[in-house]
Design a protein that fits this description.
The chain is α/β, with parallel strands linked by helices. Helix content is 31%, strand content 18%. The chain is built from 7 helices and 10 strands. The protein is globular, with a radius of gyration of 16 Å. The mean pLDDT is 97. Bound molecules: fructose -6-phosphate (F6R). Fructose -6-phosphate binds next to loops. The site of fructose -6-phosphate has 14 residues, from loops.
Length: 239
């Protein structure tokens, strides 16, 4: 495990974007596992900046996202597909046909999940998986409770619904179900890049990195990953 502790959110974003940019530079046809949420916004801004300055070329890159809310289609401003398009994909030269987000509108959840895992496997897994961290220790929407290997539907915990309500007009609008990549695809990434900021995440991060490996803290499984890079700000990981 390599840990970078940065002064603040911006420095954390620059560091993490540098790691992703290095992957894209040395491996232009790489497969990136991507996350949504507040944490990666600064990273995506940095990647866009590098692209605009001619430093990065995404034309051969493929992406697979971690998760999607159930019941929201890609045109809904709260869907993760919409977030990815607007926060990153619309601003770089990626081929949108090579960007994948689980289908939250599916009528056949079982098939959708199986196909998502098969898709990731057919790509040979991800080269780099970017992860944020939930205040309850979740990664993707792998919520505390049990380690689940495959892509699966999930009932969001109260904690996650409350944490995500800030992005909706009203907590009652937050979907209660989502579909998430499972831990097998996350753990088989060649590199896992966990990015965490803010003191509201410090307890979860401490437990994830230094506590027992337990499904009560899904991110604790990352301790077993052979190439885990953690980029945190000082509030999330005080020294
Ligand atoms: C998002 C995801 C989640 C978030 C986590 C942190 O695709 O998979 O695990 O990374 O909930 O969210 P933020 O960054 O909004 O604090």
């Amino acid at each position: 495990m390599r840990i970078y502790i940065e002064d603040n959110y911006d420095a954390m974003s620059v560091r993490a974007a540098g790691i992703i940019a290095a992957e894209v530079t040395v491996n232009p046809a790489c497969v990136l596992g991507l996350a949504t949420g507040t944490t990666p916004i600064g990273i995506y801004e940095q990647l866009i900046r590098k692209y605009e300055q001619g430093e990065l070329d995404f034309s051969e890159v493929t992406t697979v996202n971690l998760d999607e809310y159930c019941g929201l289609d890609g045109n809904s401003p709260h869907s993760y597909r919409y977030f990815m398009n607007h926060t990153l994909f619309d601003h770089i030269n990626i081929d949108k046909d090579n960007t994948f987000v689980p289908d939250g509108m599916t009528k056949d959840m079982e098939e959708t999940c199986e196909n998502y895992d098969a898709l990731i496997e057919s790509m040979g897994g991800t080269d780099l998986q970017l992860l944020g961290l939930g205040q309850n220790g979740h990664i993707g929407f792998n919520e505390p409770g049990e380690f689940i290997a495959e892509t699966h539907p999930v009932e969001l915990s109260e904690n996650t619904i409350k944490a995500n309500a800030r992005l909706f007009d009203d907590i009652s609008q937050v979907p209660t179900m989502a579909v998430t990549m499972g831990l097998k695809s996350i753990m088989s990434a060649r590199t896992v890049l966990l990015v965490v900021n803010g003191k509201q995440k410090s307890m979860a991060l401490k437990k994830a990195l230094f506590g027992p490996i337990t499904p009560k803290v899904p991110a604790s499984i990352l301790q077993l990953h052979p190439n885990l890079i953690v980029v945190a700000d000082k509030e999330a990981l005080p020294v």
